[in-house]
Design goal:
heterodimer, A: about 230 residues, alpha/beta, four-stranded antiparallel sheet, 8 helices, 10 strands, globular, B: about 400 residues, alpha+beta, ten-stranded mixed sheet, elongated
Chain lengths: ~230, ~400
């Protein structure tokens, strides 16, 4: 298998007053195409910071990031917001703890939202219908988010992330707002997506049950990975 | 779905706030359209009223020029008189192409309306007056048969008020004689509609004003300089010379000062509306800080966010402007009646004249200003960094 994401000696430091916080401290890793990678660890260990850099939401302070064979970041090089967005459009889909669905759009409109932003992927009503079918929310297509349960809303958020055909799905605490039953549903869904669609998934979670689905579990502490 | 549809759906989230913002813009547009319409309508109606008089210059007995203007336009009380010999002198002047003598007489009629009212009679020369008022058209009948006839011609509204038809006999208030209605004029939209016309000599005799006149209407030869001729008339003692141009300018200058104040108020209302839009959209950007970050994370570029937020402003302003324009059409009559209550002088005809140019001007001014005001929130939204937005607590 080939690596879809490679990072080498990645660091991210923040200035908090006079103190420098090394949120990610000299981390190197490879994520293989089609893998599920779970990043776990205590709060403040740097999980989200790392995943934000992996997902091109943030620039690292130093180190290298490669997507496939393309070098995205290297020391001394910082990408603009627009450049980061263009990379994100090409590679990533995101799921967050909060669902962030637009309340006045129907479920179908929420899923097809990336089309409004001119993303040149195969976004069509048919594809939206296929994804909704896959995620079991077809019957909710014309409903508003307020009419859905938390689990259904997270499925819609996943569908919105999948509509652009992302190579990597980044899920930051995707079950953080869900009860046990819904968490189980989302867990199974992610496994299905990975197995049937071959999507690479990077998971940040506090939930050990959810982390069990991963091919590789990375434990983070003090900005470092302890495998 | 496109960005404008998305902007529209975003506005539906806070329906009450959006509604109030649109109402604010609509009210500003209403005020602006009505004022622009008034600006045009008042001047046009005044011109029409003055042109409809058929005279370039009117001579009256010396007195307050404003009173003289009112006398000519509405018919007044406390009239002063000039003698017929003055008319004879003016009529002989080579520079005058036509002149007509008039005697206005007002009588209080206790039975007119609820509390009584003044009836105005105008004695006119049956030869010269119809020539100068050549645009008069008769609904029925014609002018008087001779200069001493016991006959009346009624203006359109006077005929309706008195409920008279051709051939009816009419006892004139203030006299003990009956007169035959020989003509009813078509509506002119001027003060003449409410007038009761009698032959000059008859009016002088009935109301004992022999050889007296209240006005002389003058038309000059085409080549004559009106201002120079007016100067010549000023040399005649105890005479007030009122040129129609003067009347127009006097009234317009009276109204102009009122208009400045009203326009200032409208401008303030306009600014309040614009800041209302700015506040609404800016609040909406702050409230959706995280959401905008998410939109950027799923692929929205700054230009998309800018267009979405700007689209919301455009929809608010254009929607409000359209509603305001509809209001100004629907309530033009009410606005006109209110204006008539407060104006020192209101001409006949439509005071508020709405035209496509006015509508386009108001719509463009309001929408463009609102749209310019929307740039700031749109820029702020476009520059939201997705990572910071997602991390933020709100």
């Amino acid at each position: 298998m080939s690596s879809i994401i490679t990072i080498k000696n990645l660091c991210k430091a923040y200035q908090r007053g006079s103190e420098t916080v090394n949120a990610v401290n000299n981390v190197s890793l490879e994520v293989e195409q089609g893998d599920i990678v779970a990043i776990v660890g205590p709060s403040g260990s740097g999980k989200t910071t790392l995943v934000n850099i992996l997902g091109c939401l943030d620039n690292p302070t130093s180190g290298e990031l490669w997507l496939n064979d393309k070098k995205i970041f290297e020391a001394g090089l910082s990408l603009s917001e627009k450049e980061l967005t263009l990379i994100r459009r090409q590679y990533f889909g995101y799921i967050f703890q909060k669902f962030f669905l637009l309340p006045t759009l129907t479920i179908k409109e929420n899923i097809m939202l990336p089309e409004v932003f001119g993303i040149k992927a195969d976004i069509s009503e048919q594809r939206a219908a296929e994804i909704m079918d896959l995620l079991g929310i077809s019957h909710r297509a014309e409903h508003l988010p307020s009419e859905l349960s938390g689990g259904e809303m997270q499925r819609v958020a996943i569908a919105r992330a999948l509509i652009t055909n992302p190579k990597v799905l980044i899920a930051d605490e995707p079950t953080g707002n869900l009860d046990t039953k819904r968490t189980e549903e989302i867990k199974n869904l992610l496994i299905d997506l990975n197995r049937k669609q071959g999507i690479t998934i990077i998971l940040v979670t506090h939930n050990p049950e959810l982390a069990q689905i991963a091919d590789k579990v990375l434990f983070m502490e003090d900005g470092k990975i302890k495998e | 779905m496109n960005l404008l549809t998305l902007a529209y759906k975003n506005l539906k989230r806070r329906k009450i706030r959006t509604g109030f913002t649109i109402i604010g813009i609509a009210l500003s547009t209403w005020v602006l359209v009505t004022l622009l319409g008034f600006n045009k309508g008042y001047e046009q109606s005044l011109n029409k009223d003055i042109d409809a008089m058929g005279f370039q210059i009117v001579l009256t007995a010396k007195g307050c020029p404003y009173e003289a203007a009112t006398l000519m336009l509405k018919g007044g009380t406390g009239l002063r008189y000039i003698t017929e010999s003055l008319f004879d002198d003016i009529n002989k002047d080579m520079e005058v192409s036509a002149a007509t003598p008039m005697l206005m007489h007002a009588e209080f009629d206790p039975y007119k309306g609820e509390n009584g009212g003044t009836i105005v009679y105008l004695g006119v020369d049956n030869k010269t007056y119809p020539q100068m008022k050549s645009y008069f058209e008769f609904l029925a009948g014609n002018w008087f048969k001779n200069a001493n006839a016991r006959e009346v011609v009624l203006g359109y509204e006077a005929a309706e008020l008195e409920q008279r038809e051709i051939g009816d006999m009419m006892l004139l208030t203030g006299s003990e004689e009956e007169f035959t209605v020989v003509g009813i004029l078509k509506r002119t939209g001027t003060q003449d509609d409410g007038m009761i016309f009698l032959p000059l000599k008859t009016l002088q005799e009935v109301f004992k004003k022999q050889n007296l006149l209240t006005m002389v209407g003058i038309q000059l030869q085409k080549e004559v300089n009106a201002t120079a001729y007016e100067d010549k008339l000023y040399e005649i003692p105890d005479i007030q010379v009122v040129s129609m141009a003067q009347v127009k300018n006097t009234i317009i200058s009276l109204v102009k000062s009122a208009k400045v104040i009203v326009f200032s108020i409208a401008f303030i209302a306009f600014l309040i509306a614009v800041f209302g839009v700015l506040n609404t959209v800016l609040m909406s950007v702050f409230e959706r800080y995280q959401e905008i970050g998410i939109l950027k994370s799923i692929g929205a570029l700054p230009k998309h966010i800018f267009a979405m937020i700007w689209g919301e402003t455009i929809l608010l302003c254009s929607g409000g402007s359209i509603i305001g324009i509809v209001f100004s059409y629907l309530f033009a009559d009410i606005s006109e009646n209110l204006a008539r209550l407060f104006l020192p002088f209101a001409p006949n005809g439509s005071l508020i004249m709405l035209s496509p140019e006015i509508i386009i001007t108001a719509f463009t001014a309001i929408t463009l200003t609102g749209v310019l005001g929307g740039i700031l929130p749109a820029i702020r939204a476009a520059h939201i960094r997705p990572l910071e937005a997602i991390r933020s607590d709100n």
